[in-house]
Structure formats: structure tokens, C-alpha cells
Amino acid sequence: MKTYRDFDRYLKEFPDKNGYFGRYGGAILPPELVPAFQDITAAYQEICHSAQFISELRRIRKEFQGRPTPVYHCDRLSRHLGKSQIYLKREDLNHTGAHKINHCMGEGLLAKFLGKKKIIAETGAGQHGVALATAAAYFGLECDIYMGEVDIAKQHPNVVRMKMLGANVIPVTHGLKTLKEAVDAAFEGYLKEYQDAIYCIGSAVGPHPFPMMVRDFQSVVGYEARAQFLEMTGILPDTVCAAVGGGSNSIGMFEAFLSDPVEIVGVEPLGRGEAVGDHAASMKFGKLGTLHGFESILLQDEQGEPLPVYSIASGLDYPSVGPEHAYLCECGRVNYDVVSDEEAMEAFFLLCRYEGIIPAIESSHALAYAIRRAREQDTGAILVNLSGRGDKDIDYVFEHYGTGERFFKK
Which is deepest, 29, 55, 147, 344, by most CB within 10 Å? Predict the structure, then answer.
């Protein structure tokens, strides 16, 4: 069991040269893709230490994305719940409305460095697709976005945004028609075009170097939040939490706090309950397996095939989790808990009513965990990564929950 004292050199040691975090990670690829991923790894290792690249990325973040995003104290919500204080890292205020733009602009820069003409990706909730379509427009690249038909129906506003930005949105019609199938289809598309395209994965998953790259690009969230919270309060938060699907917003939030005496919690979707197909809680119910070119914790059957998953949040319904999350859980530095659909939707409406902020349903899972903790304890500060805003969700929420009045009945 490792504590925060063991993480001073963590970023220098993980992942190893083969892309592993302990026994999780790697690059399990078709032979024809091995050279392409070696080129991506070599290019990233070169540019991540380039002053020119870093300077350009910082300029983009400041002038185009609107960084830094603020930390916000939920005063009314905190007083409503009890004596604990809830703070939000407002990634919803990024250009395009979520944290995804952080790694998409970095991946777009990498694509230009490699001389690629097209970027290919999958999306679930649509935020990664919108962010990547934005990056493609910014850098003058073609863009193919694969999206399951179920998610296309749930996330219509984001589909329209992607098309307006010039992306080719490709419906995925097989299987459950959600995020896992979209990743499958995007990999198949990339296999046909890897010489002229780059696959820009939407989370801290996939073959090496993508879990490392996404973590590095997203770590700006945690480093900003840590400095901002210290400036606001003079101390560190007691607890830091974020939602975990594949794990990009959470790994970006967690990195800055790993060597601090801070409790860190990843929050997975319990959905409708513990039955197979009713949740996407990989860490709670999964075991070691292989999916989409990497080894991690996977919800799988006896033959090792991915099980069906579900979450009310389209960005969280993935049957595995980033390999770094699996390692941080196994070594004991990060705890992982679950939140149901009902808890997430209560949190969604509480933030609307008490703070005037409409959160993404994905982010509402982390907020629900913070609300649960605030009701249970008499003191402390909880910092939540509010990874995205809920504009994309309002049609779906209104159709199924109305204005949330049942959550406010005595």
C-alpha cells in the first residue's frame, strides 16, 4: 500500500518505456500499426520537451481555450448540505464546454508535427468529438468522428456542432451502438488510413503512448486547481474527486495531488444497479483484461469478451478504465467509489438550483459523491473537477426528468 510520500518521483518512473503502469498498459497492436505508434511515441517524446511546442500550446490555452479556468466555492450548496465546503474546478468554462479541448489541441499540434492530413477519433457524450472537430478546424485538418447511434440520439446538439465545425460524423450501428463500439470503429478506420491520419483517442486509454499523452495534456487541470485552491484558502483540500469513465478528466485532476496528504477519489457510474448491463463500474466489478490495445481492468465474461455496459452519462459507459487508474487503485493511492443514475441526477439539479450552474451528467457523478460526503461529515473541503457543462444534456434531461421537481420534494 503506497501513500502520498511514495509519489515524489512518480511522473519520472511511470509509465515505463513500454507504456506500463505496473502490470497495466502497453501497446497490443496489429503488426502493421506498430511502426505508426512508434512514430507517434518518438514524435511526442521529442516535442514534449520542445520549448517551441510548449510555448505554442500555452498560447493556445490562454488565447483560444480561455485558460486558466477558475476554482469556484459553492457557498449556497455547501450551506444547504451542512458544514463541509464544496469547491469546483470549472472545466465547463473551457472553449467547447469541457476538459476535452485540453488534449485535443495538443494532439492537433502533434498531428501537424507529424505531417498528417486527417485526425480520427471516437466520441460518446460528444464533447471529445466537438473538441477534436474544433482542433481540426483550427489546424486545417480533415476530421472523422465515429459515434454510436444511441449517443447520436442522446447528444444531438453536439452532433450538430461537430458538423458545423466541418467534421464527418460517422454513425456506428453495431453492438450496443455506444462508446465501446465507436472506439472499435475508429480503430478500424485508422487501420485503413494510418499513413495519412492520426488517431486522437478521447481518454486516457488505448495503446501507449496515448494514456501518457492524454495524462500530460490534461495535467494542467490539476496543477491549476492546486495553486488556485492554495491561493483561495491557504491550505489544500481534504478530498479531491472526479468522474471516471475512461479517465481523462480525473487523471488530469489527480496528478498534481498524488504527492500531497490529500484523499483522492475516482467516481464510477453504478447506473441502474449491480446487474450486468446496468452499470459501467469497471474498477468495482472488473478484472485484468485486454481491450483496444491495452491491458487494464475490464468488465468481461468468462471468455474475456467485454460485457455490455450502461450509464445515463454517454461519456462514462466504457467497459474498461485507463491503465494508470488501475495502477493507482491497485497500489492504494487513489480510492474508487460508485454513484447511481439517481444520485447523479439529484446532484445535477442541486447545482442548477443552488449555484446557477448546469453541469454535464458525467461531471454530476463526481458532484454527487461530494454531496454524499458533505452530508455525512461535519467539516472539510472537497474539490470536484466539474469536467463539462450540461448544454448537451438538457434535451435528454428535460424529456426524462422534467425540471427535477421530484428531487426537491420534502
Answer: 147
